Amino acid sequence: MKEYDQLAEWYPSHRSAQIGIKDISTFAASLPLGSNVLDLGCGDGIPISRFLLEGGFNLYGIDSSPKMIKMFKKNLPGVPVDCSDLLQSSFFDMKFDAVVAYGLMFHFPQDKQESVIVRVSEHLVERGKFLFNSSKEQGETVSEMNGVKVPHWSMSAPQYIQALHKNDLMAISDYEDKQSGTHIYLAQKRTRNLGKNFT
Asked: What count of other Cβ atoms lies within 10 Å of the Cβ of residue 90?
């Protein structure tokens, strides 16, 4: 996002070093060590990508901000990272055990958010897990950070759950994240042999 190129130098020192970590920690605890995990909207890699890397996962990142990616490479040298629009990204030509999109979904207009879900589903292994946050109410707002206006969009919780189910992802849970004031959605890729059901 062009807005985060404008905020790249300001942003790291003005956001919580623990934002999202409680939710990501719980999520990570459900994954086998050594899982391939993709951080969508990885930014400069702090704090979420670093937490996952230090947790013993094979980490990959995608972000559309060249300045943020430059900082990511400095913070987490050697970690594979792709500077591209995720709707155009190759996703490293891989399927992942888990995908995290914390602080990402609401930066896409509503008509593009299901496209994000489609891409994630395409690149998850069977039973792979997907965590993202947004609102639970449909709407559009604009926030301002360091004088830069950043638009936010959201579908409603039922719309997100419907979009997940439509794209072979079963919603496992959704709950309020009081730290960020957003709503957490957790889903799992269906298995072919079980169709629409889980055991």
From this structure: 10
Among 190, 46, 188, CA closest to 131:
188
Q: What is the reported pLDDT for 146?
A: 62
Rg of the chain in Å (alpha carbons)? 16
- Kind and range of the H or E element at 170? strand 169-177
Identify any residues that bridge with 175 across adjacent strands, giving them in sequence order: 184
Q: Would you state the CATH architecture of domain 2-189?
A: 3-Layer(aba) Sandwich (3.40)
Indicate whether 88 pLDDT > 70. Answer: yes
> Residue 12 and residue 29: Cα distance in Å, rounded?
26
pLDDT for 116-171, tens place per residue?
A: 999 999 999 999 999 999 999 999 988 776 677 878 899 999 999 999 999 999 99
Sequence-ordered strand ranges (E) for 49-165: 58-63, 81-83, 96-101, 124-134, 139-145, 148-154
Half-sphere exposure of 134 (CA within 13 A, CB side): 33
Show the tokens assigned to 88. Answer: 């155009």
Residue type at 7? L
